[in-house]
Amino acid sequence: MKMDLQQFLISVLYFYNYLVVFYFIAINIIYILLNFLSFFEIRKYVRENRVVNTGIVFRSNFYIPVSVLMPAYNESQNIVDSVKSMLQLHYPEFEIIVINDGSKDDTAELLKAAYKMTEVSFEPSNSLPCKNVRGIYVSKTHRNLIMIDKQNGGKADALNAGVNYSKYPLFCALDADSVLDNESILKISRAFIEEPDIIAAGGIIRVINGCRIEAGEVVSIDLPGSVLAKFQIIEYLRGFLFGRTGWSAINSMLIISGAFGIFKKKEVVEAGGYRSDTVGEDMELVVRLYNKYRPEKKMKIKFIPDPVCYTEVPETLGVLSRQRNRWQRGLIDSLLLNMNMLFNPRYGAVGLIAMPFFVFFEMLGPVIEFSGYIVFLVSLWLGIVNYKFVLLFTMASISLGIILSVSSILLEELTFKKYSSVSQASWLFLYSVLENFGYKQLNTYFRFRGTIDYILGNKHWGEMTRLGFKKDK
Amino acid sequence: MDSFDLIIFLITVNIGFIFLVIILFGYIITGKIISNYRETRKKKLFGELEDAFLPLIVANDESGVQKTLSTIGVKNLENFIEFISVYLSNIKGDDFDRIINAIYKSPVFKILCDSTASDDLDTRLYSIYCLGLLQKPVCIDNLLNALDDGNFFVRMAAVKAIAEIKCFSALDRVLEALAREKLVTSYKLSETLWSFGEEICEPLLAALKKRDGRIVRIHEEDLLTASMIEIMGYFKFFDAAEEIHAVLKETKVNLIVKSCIYSLGKMVYTDSLHAVEMHLDSRDPEVRVSAVKAILEFRCVEKIDKLKSLLNDSDWNVRYNSAIALYEMSFDFQGYMFSPELAGQEMSMAYRTIVHVLTEKYTTETEAGI
Question: Is the CB of A123 less than 8 angstroms away from the CB of B316?
Fold first, then answer.
């Protein structure tokens, strides 16, 4: 009997080892395919934009006005600068709505003082569910600046309040600490005019740490001093330039970053707005939009690689772990709430490709990877697998990881070239190699913890510490 | 495959990967060095070209500029064209014309025309783009040939360049090309038509009049008709008002209805009031909004009662725009809010919309110091 159990355990270990190898091969094949898709997609975008004149939007009346929504919770450190940056956007018609989500600091007071805000009585244009709105304020110095002061209800709740009081057909959801490139809205909104089927679009998020900011505008791009922030530059380049571009190419992009996304208000309102009972409200909304509209009508959700939004990334392990934990919980929630789309041909590539990928590789990935490390070590200890095989397999997996990371830098260099010097490119290359020795594994652990926390029912947002832009001046 | 073979296979894979990483590193760094070198060279060339153009602007020395262009311009066409595009967009009036003429009379112009058929894609793209900026109809044949180019981006650049040159005789070819690309979104159409400038209105009106004509037939969706009508409205081309009015009366397509109402409003063609006001009761809120905006353009005080009733519309945009229209038409909001009609109805949509617009306007006017 004891022998049978031992045999059974060994068989399980064998099976698990094969599963991990299969997982590794499958995920990397998909990544390589995404890489190729992204390469052609970005090249096409860059070429097309040589012959497109965004200035025409300014001169003509062929633009769609945009409401920019900035939820703010305890953002006193950045809020005045962030709003200043937004007010400098190059766009013919837009309004900025800051939603003070019951901040405990003086976010609201700072805004009122800086922009001479006065209370008004506005009628909401929609009635998405949100916590009690205490007051609406309009700036006397900038007629397109509005502040909604409301009871705390979280980011999704704040965005719903913003949508309710917005007056334009498109709204742009931002983080209060985001800094947009001046022409970002112009570039991203063009997609909505050119392709009427688009109901949402996201731009690229770049790391602001290390950059020089003057008057709310990024004037020079440099690498941050923090090692952790440098790793995240590689991660963001990889995630956006070849991850989202690739998914967008097959119209299956399930995530638009909460830091910068633009949506058609009508469709979002019809879909019920943001859900405030999830920590991944940005992804959940996008997946729900597919769920609601994909079977009924031609619709697209697109990633545009050029419009840039800069955001501050965590520079300490504690904040990073909380952020990744939350992202993982948000991802699981978004997928589980829309599981009817999995392998459902009514949803096209979303149901047959993107959902299975996200469920099996993004949602379950951390569990398979993390347990894979343990099983590999146990198998090695028990002598079930050849140590040479383990070593070489690990090397191959790390090398492939390096190739994928480096290829995202290559994509950046072939297109947007934001990091201009040879030394910056060399540093990025070095960090794209180094991230495979510890950083990626650490991230897997954070996401694994996120999965455990999700199972345990943790729905906390997790405290995010901002360093603020001023230090970079 | 036994375990030895597997190990050999993995070793080979690893060596391959490592080589690939090294190659990628080399490619990125070499690419960076080359692109930085090109950037420096470009800056130098920009400086030289600027030095050549300045005397032209200051001393009207056309021959000197032509000489400089012949030596500098042809050496690096791509950078030259980039310089021209940036430089020209910052210059206006006589200086602009002088520079254009200098380029036109220099050998560079012929090189640009010939480059539209170059083997190199970038050269084709840049030269076509530049010809659009130079706006010389003499190159139209090169651009028409480019409409049949194998590359989509070249074809689109040619479409735009022809529009910039305002070559109306090529309008049919342009629209056909756009339709063939299946890229005829309203924006692309409007953008192209708009680039032709105000003079496009006349041929558009002619095309609209023969609604069974060639241009309309090539587009099966109504997008083209709507774009044509909007362009005429944008330029306030009053000659088309009657025809657009006729279209409004006969069409049942909301897209065209909206564009007609928009244009008639812009043209302040009050004869269409009856046709427009019928759409205040449309089932499509966007059509209702366009009708409200047109009524405002007409300053039609007789419709104030209708606008008042729209303050209770189910759509916020209709309510908001009706209130704005009433405000702009100097409607006595205060009297209305205290009238028996709205008494005790502070929570009604009409009341709240009025308060919204009044506070918004009050804040704006305070800001402007009115």
Answer: yes
Question: Is-contact A280 A329, C-beta < 8 A?
Answer: yes
Q: Which amino acid is at B70?
A: S
**Closest chain A C-alpha to B61 CA, distance in angstroms:** 32
Q: How many CB atoms lie within 10 A of CB B274?
A: 10
Residues in chain A within 8 Å Cβ distance of B355: 121, 123
How crowded is the C-beta side of B48, counted as CA atoms within 13 Å? 17
Nearest of A278, A259, A262, A261 to residue A157 by alpha carbon = A278
DSSP lists the bridge partners of residue A198 as A300
B181 to chain A nearest CA, in Å? 14
Residue of chain A whose alpha carbon sits nearest to that of B285: A266
Q: Give the one of A194, A414, A420 whose C-beta lies nearest to B185's C-beta.
A: A194
Q: Which two tokens stand for residue A377?
A: 């070590």
B125 touches A at CB < 8 Å = yes
pLDDT value at A98 more than 70 = yes
Domain ranges of chain B: 36-165
What's the rounded Cα separation, in Å, for the pair B292 and A110?
A: 39
Report the alpha-carbon distance of residue A68 to residue A63 in Å, rounded. 15
Q: How far apart are CA A418 and CA A213, in angstroms?
A: 15
Average pLDDT over residues B164-169: 84
Residues within 8 A of B (CB atoms), A 388-447 only: 388-389, 392-393, 395-396, 399-400, 402-403, 406-407, 409-410, 413-414, 417, 420-422, 425-426, 429, 433
Mutation target to probe the B interface, by most B beta carbons within 10 A, among A43, A51, A170 is A51
Span of A28-32, A236-240, B95-99, B202-206 with lowest mean pLDDT: B95-99
Alpha helices in A115-264 (DSSP H): 155-165, 184-194, 227-237, 245-249
Cβ atoms A429, A409 nearer than 8 A: yes
Backbone angles phi, psi at A303, to 5 degrees: -105, 130
Could you give the strand order of the β-sheet that contains A170-174, starting from the edge strand earlier in sequence? A117-120, A133-139, A145-150, A94-101, A66-72, A170-174, A260-264, A198-207, A300-311, A179-180
| Distances A425 to A230, A428, A437, B257, B306 between C-alpha atoms, Å | 12, 5, 19, 55, 65
Contact state of A47 with B125 under an 8 Å Cβ cutoff: yes
Which residues have C-beta within 8 Å of that of residue B306, sequence separation ≥ 6?
B277, B280, B295
The residue written with tokens 């774009």 in the block is B227
Longest CA pairwise span in chain A (Å): 83
Structural domain B36-165, CATH architecture:
Alpha Horseshoe (1.25)
* Tokens of residue A409, six digits: 């830098």
Q: What is the pLDDT of residues A412-455, one digit of tens each?
A: 888 888 888 899 999 999 999 999 999 999 999 999 999 999 99
**Tokens at residue B278, please?**
């019928």
The C-alpha atoms of residue B167 and residue B272 are separated, in whole angstroms, by: 33
Does residue A44 contact residue A417 with C-beta atoms inside 8 Å? no
